[in-house]
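User: Predict the structure for this protein chain, please.
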Amino acid sequence: MFIEILFLIALGVSLADMIILIQISSGPGIYFIVITQILTTGYGIFRIRKLDFNLFFFLDAELKKGEKIVKELWEEAWILSAVCFLIIPGFFSDIIGGLFLMESVRRFFLEYVLEIN
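Assistant: Here is the predicted structure, written as structure tokens:
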């Protein structure tokens, strides 16, 4: 369930990004797009080398079992999601990825997730 929701969010963000990129890419805005996409994707790839994708599958299995998940694993999953959003091409996904990497935003959403869990 967790992986399906994450996939649907990524799909919606990608579609919104395509619309934004088509609007901006006319004229000299194309250079800005190319530079920002190279920078954010490069940073995302740099950060993702140290993370483990199996964490998503572990969280999904634990949620299906109804087990309580510790805060550190949620935070690691949040960072992994943020880095994935940075790698997805587009402005909207880069904004979401950047916000997810901010400590205050992460803390706000983690408090919400831990209340539910």
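The chain has six helices and no strands.
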